[in-house]
Amino acid sequence: MTDTLHIVGGGMAGSEAAWQAASAGIDVVIHEMRPKTGTFAHKTGDLAEMVCSNSFRSDDDEQNAVGLLHWEMRAAGSLIMEMADTHRLPAGGALAVDREAFSQGVTERLMRHPRIRREDTEITSLPADGHWIFATGPLTSDALGQAIRAETGAEALAFFDAIAPIVHFDSIDLSKAWFQSRYDKGETEEERTAYLNCPMDRDQYEAFIDALLTAEKTAFHEGETAGYFDGCLPIEVMAERGRETLRHGPMKPVGLTNPHAPHIKAHAIVQLRRDNALGTLYNIVGFQTKMKYGAQADVFRMIPGLEAARFARLGGIHRNTFLNSPTLLDAELRLKSRPHIRFAGQVTGVEGYVESSAMGLLAGRLAAAAIKGHSLPPVPATTATGALVTHITGGAEAKTFQPMNVNFGLFPPVEGLKGGRRGRRDRYKGYTDRAKADWTGWLGAAG
């Protein structure tokens, strides 16, 4: 069927692309190599499986760029956002989900759609014709990676994405830890108490840093280099950059008051966030690591409240592959050398679940329009979606291209609003108001 859209990869981007295209009346085949061909990071064959974290980050659509991206995707009928909202967990001002229920929900909805079918096959080459979206993510198979390099004549860039450990809740000492979201953020009591906090005094922090620096690390494979993405640094790499780095990052002791010792200010605080709806699992926020498993358990049990911690999963690290998109892709996410092929998701050089899903949403709509014989107007660069696609397909410097989260630095300035920290709230509100109006207009024009 020449009018069928083939999507390679059933992660966040591939799942969203399939939903958008099928909703537009296009027949879709999702080619997913799992579970027949697995990866070290994935545990199931479900679509949209969450690997690194269970958080979609901030849900503030007035003062945060990723929250604005949530808003745009909801307005466009996003399946990923619908399932995230359905399986939401308390997380202060963030949007966190029960990861298993979320991916099962996405899988069920897609497989019930009459225009979508799934083939558990691994695609190892770039097709010569048809309509295709490659959304193979950061764990693109070696065979397909080689095919992409052979086609483009360019080396795919790589960085290392680290996975944070998950702790069984009933092994946490609540005489030392307490529930509180930073600055008590959230509209409900559940939201305001969404995080578990473990305080450290100066001596405990210094001993923890010493242990991080001396712990045995997993060696890199031959030919790999440690080109970390700054948004997902292993904690030991952060510690190597300076002993105070973690205190100004994931262990910052601000916006929190220890009810066990309200008059004592902690030197550093480790936060854990609920990882499932039952509340039986908590992940250690920002604690991605490349320490060996035995060393991880020893080091993390130095954290007050985690002395007897039992781990449902220890941390890990894996290679992420992505295209030099400013060189290889056009403004509609098409491979310049083979315009019947689009790319979407993390393989394009966006970073994060939401950003990946947004590029899947856009690719699905663009492909559906092309199959129907018409084109969509360009997405305004003033929107979160438009700012991202503009950045990866031409706004970024190709020579130094690295994975990028959505942020207001990618948006065109709003005229008449002052810069600097003092004008930030008005400026961000200006960005989001403009984006919502322009995105609503684009959706109307796109049909």
Structure description:
With 447 residues, the protein is α+β, with helices and mostly antiparallel strands. The chain has 2 domains: 276 residues, 3-Layer(bba) Sandwich (FAD/NAD(P)-binding domain); 158 residues, Elongation Factor Tu (Ef-tu), domain 3, CATH 2.40.30. The strands form 4 sheets. Strands 6-2-1-7-17-16 form a 6-stranded mixed beta sheet, covered by helices on one side. Helix 1 packs parallel to helix 11, helix 2 runs parallel beside helix 13 and helix 3 crosses helix 4. The longest helix is centred in the last third of the chain and has 23 residues.
Shape: globular
Order of the strands making up the biggest sheet: 6-2-1-7-17-16
Radius of gyration: 22 Å
How many separate domains? 2
Structural class: alpha+beta
CATH architecture annotation name of the largest domain: 3-Layer(bba) Sandwich
How many DSSP E strands? Answer: 17
Percent range for helical residues? 25-40%
Number of helices: 13
Assign the CATH topology of the largest domain: FAD/NAD(P)-binding domain
Taking the alpha carbons of the first and last residues, their distance comes to 24 Å
Mean model confidence by pLDDT: 90
Beta-strand percentage range: 15-25%
- Which residues form runs of ≥5 with pLDDT under 50? none
CATH class of the largest domain: Alpha Beta
String of helices and strands? EHEEHHEEHEEHEEEHEHHEEHEEHEEHHH
Largest sheet: 6 strands, mixed
* Assembly state (oligomeric): single chain
The CATH superfamily of the largest domain turns out to be: FAD/NAD(P)-binding domain
EC number: 2.1.1.74
Organism: Rhodovulum kholense
GO molecular function: flavin adenine dinucleotide binding; tRNA (uracil(54)-C5)-methyltransferase activity, 5,10-methylenetetrahydrofolate-dependent
InterPro entries: FAD/NAD-bd_sf, MnmG-rel, MnmG_N, TrmFO
